[in-house]
Design goal:
This protein has 635 residues and is α+β, with helices and mostly antiparallel strands. Helix content is 52%, strand content 16%. The protein is built from 25 helices and 15 strands.
Amino acid sequence: MVLQKMRAGAQGMAAKILVGLIVFTLAVFGFGAFDLFSVSDPVAATVNGDDITQRALETELARQRAMYRAQLGDEVTDSLLDSIVTADAVLQRLVNEALLLQAADDLDLSVADETVLDDIRRAFAEIGGFDEGLYRRRLGELGYTPASYQAERGGEMRRAQLNAGFGDTAFVTGREIRRAARVQGQRRDIAWLTFDIAALAATVDVADAEVEQHYGDNIDDYMTEERFDFDLVRLPRERLAAQVEVDEEAIVAAYEDEIALQKEPRRHAAHILLEVGEERTADEAAAQLATVRAEVLGGADFAELARELSEDPGSAEAGGDLGVSGRGVFVSAFEDAAWALEPGEISQPVATEFGVHLIKLIAIEEAEVPTLDERRDAIAADLQGEEARLAFDEALREMDTIAFEQGDSLEALTEQFSLAVEPLDGATRDSFDGVLAEQAVRDALFADEVLLEGFNSQAVATDTEAVVGRLRARHPATEQPLDEVREAIRVELADERGAALAQSAALDALASLADGQTPAEVAESAGLEWQRADGATQGDPAVPVAIMRQAFELAAPAPGERVREIAALADGSRALVVLSSVELADYGTVAETDRASVAGSLERLDSERSIGALLGTLRADASIDALAFEDLETP
């Protein structure tokens, strides 16, 4: 129906004039003319001439929202996410990243494209293997193309090089380590009185008139959520997988391709790597390794020299041992040299993008090739899975086309794919059950084109199905009747008074101690009992977190004295915390692992301070032009 309207409109005079202008433009300027009339993305900020686009800001906002939602779980609301992930904070982060990337460029830090791709492949290998369809789909959900994601990942790796430079030069003294270890392992004698909000709230009588007054004054807080009824069409992946048949010929062909890669013997190699940079040229590294080669041929131990000289942190401690591998693991120049050696031979120096290598071939291992019968089921499953993925991707594209072209009904989709329409009633923007557990589905169903314009949603893919939906009914927010929320309001008001009573009682107890009353007299007056933790260390599970935090924030008391403060507990209760002594740890008793942990923490802190100082300098010297944050068109 939509296409029919478009075809009908194309017969009008205005359409013909437009077509004529397009033809004239192409004839004069060629297809590049479209760039003359294209509108670039709005700019959110400019950093030393480099633009941060509105799209980049929106993509990063969406990415961080998804990250926090994954960390905090489905209970997190959109309003909470809005308070955590703000346009201001995200744009400031993007500005900082741009400044660090420019600094990396000034230092000629670079990462090869193949290195970036290897990093991406390794990330997928950790979750079961690289799947191009899944890769592109996930990137699309995050607003990336493969090229833009590769560029961003390369930028992250270059910034990581810059950070690593500061980390490698971070320095702490033995005195700093000893002092920090003693402070970290300190013990404190603490005591506390807890003024429990629940017990105090139970003593409060909230009258009906107060409940009604609160309800009237805060009616906006007692509205039902806006709800939506959708109709969905869902195409399961497993249905397409069940329709895929794999014949014997395809299995045999795949097996032959597989073993063709396995038949070649694998190499067990070791190497010594010298990096190339400002302190050493490639020729100097090659000359140094030529000398090392002569020493090895003269009887020196290759493994010992590798431990002493190699700058490959992954293999140096193992005597340069790289393990057993087949083709395709290392860069081509390295592999060509390694595959040209016989066991026991040492290569000439070999230059790659990582530096200059001296390679020793330890052994050649013949591959154990499985039989066709051993591999048949696995290959058949792989082929079926690949065919099912291709079929699903094609079905997803077709569903999206039909959903767009016949946007006022799901009927064409149900007929084309023999699917039933499934109702989804009572959904809210904060629903995360069932199909709405998928962010892509929520984004599609709650898009303006669905809720405001009444069109079908776009077709979106999840790990198990393809989904298209359309709005059937919209139920606006309404006031909740007082009788439904009366008891909740009564509890809320009682808790508020209980919190005020807890704060007041804690302050009274604090004042009484200051006036000279003994701890026993204060506890008796409050009708409570002191709880104690002598020699408590940070993280002691016997002490509530808020009380422990407050106790370790207090300054150490003079001998024979006590210091005290009020701590606010997570539930609104209050605690009077008294600190009577502090004893620093004996460094001689601190375990070596704890000393190393303290040293590492101090080095990271020094590195973070250095990066912070660098950013401060870069920002002070930079030309940064950012939109007022209230003008940003964030989602």
